[in-house]
Design brief:
Elements (H helix, E strand, L loop, with lengths): L6 H7 L2 H4 L8 H6 L2 H19 L5 E2 L4 H19 L3 H52 L4 E3 L5 E3 L7 H5 L3 H8 L6 H31 L2 E2 L7 E3 L5 E3 L1 E2 L1 H31 L4 H15 L1 H9 L2 H9 E3 L11 H24 L11 H5 L10
């Protein structure tokens, strides 16, 4: 008889009446609640199974981009070179992965510099001139001062004259009311979406950084870094200190730094956009710079490299799982950081329009013909 059968039922089944085929009666209360020891043992068994499944997490994939390829290639080649000796093919594969990563970094740095000098500077000059004309029109030249950049700003406490704005040509009015900071709510949403896109990249990088370098075990022997799995893939269960520093410097730091700088330049370029239509389109165009690691990987990586990044994972048994509730706190941290960063940038950090007085939105709302389709 099964040992998991409640003793109360076993006693009835082993009774003389049961053996002779006689009928026996068991009350519902006796059957469901009579054996507390058996119930607690069953519950404990379920809890042990749940705890065991929680303490043996699945292997974590590296991802599908050029940085994941470099991590997989470094671990694979490092192990082969240490155990079997260096071969020209192994070294060539490692060098090729490193060159692809350098190509990504070069393209991102070049594009960031081009965005800053070729796009942001002319756009800022144009939008500053638009706001300068608006300040003179609504405050009068006698009630303005000149900033260090040579543009006019209304004196604090000066009265704003709507008649000066109404006297401007319609095209000038449209330009003034198309300045991104003249529509702060719309601009805030666009910058927030762009920031969330960058933060998603940073968070994925930091998550992989935690799994691949922080929580994983440190081993002394190279042959202990990778183990074979029954599922047909390999798992990184440990790294040496040298590999830990190498991957941190070459894989993770450039990716995080370039994404942070790109977020700042992207916010700067978006705020300096001269029209709301271009503001929306430019926010979409910026995303392709974040996709360069995936684009280079899918275009120039070999079929073997694709398979390598799919089969090599971070070993789940070697990971130190965060405490319960940590995931919620981390998610809330990124939410608050994104919301606060966009607000701080628009109000305090942005230098597209230094000394911006937030005096355009309510003026544009009083001139409905600006948004009239028949105008």
């Amino acid at each position: 008889m099964d040992r998991r059968t409640p003793p109360l039922v076993r006693s009835h089944l082993s009774s003389p009446n049961a053996e002779s085929g006689g009928r026996f009666k068991v009350s519902r209360d006796e059957l469901l609640g009579g054996d507390e020891e058996w119930q607690s043992r069953s519950a404990g068994s379920d809890e042990d199974s749940a705890a065991e499944s929680f303490n043996t997490p699945d292997d974590h994939p590296l991802g599908e981009n050029i940085y994941a390829l470099l991590i997989a290639e470094v671990m694979q080649s490092y192990t082969k070179i240490w155990i079997a000796g260096a071969s020209m093919l192994t070294v060539a594969r490692l060098v090729y992965a490193a060159l692809l990563m350098l190509a990504v970094i070069f393209l991102q740095v070049f594009l960031l510099q081009a965005v800053s000098s070729k796009l942001c500077v002319p756009a800022m000059r144009h939008i500053r001139q638009i706001y300068d004309n608006y300040q003179i029109a609504v405050y009068g030249e006698n009630n303005t001062y000149v900033t260090v950049n040579g543009f006019h700003r209304g004196i604090d406490g000066a009265e704003l004259h709507l008649q000066g704005f109404m006297a401007l040509p319609l095209e000038t009015k449209v330009e003034v009311c198309s300045v991104p900071l003249s529509q702060p709510h719309f601009t805030y949403c666009i910058l927030l979406i762009w920031t969330m896109t960058c933060f998603a990249e940073i968070r994925a990088t930091m998550r992989l950084f935690y799994f691949a370098l922080v929580s994983i075990d440190t081993v002394d022997r190279v042959k202990d870094c990778i183990v074979e799995r029954e599922e047909g893939h390999k798992a990184i269960v440990g790294v040496t200190q040298g590999v830990r520093y190498f991957m941190g410097i070459t894989c993770f730091f450039p990716r995080i730094a370039s994404t942070l700088f790109l977020n700042y330049l992207g916010c700067r370029w978006l705020v300096s956009t001269a029209s709301l239509q271009d503001l929306f389109l430019n926010s979409l165009a910026l995303e392709f710079m974040l996709l360069l690691p995936e684009l280079i990987y899918r275009t120039f990586a070999t079929d073997r490299a694709w398979k390598l990044t799919e089969t090599i994972m971070i070993g789940g048994n070697s990971l130190q799982l965060p405490k319960e509730g940590t995931g919620l706190m981390v998610s809330l941290f990124w939410v608050v950081l994104a919301i606060v960063w966009v607000y701080v940038y628009m109000v305090y950090i942005q230098q597209v329009l230094p000394g911006y007085k937030w005096d355009v939105r309510h003026v544009c709302q009083q001139v409905p013909e600006i948004y009239d389709e028949s105008a």
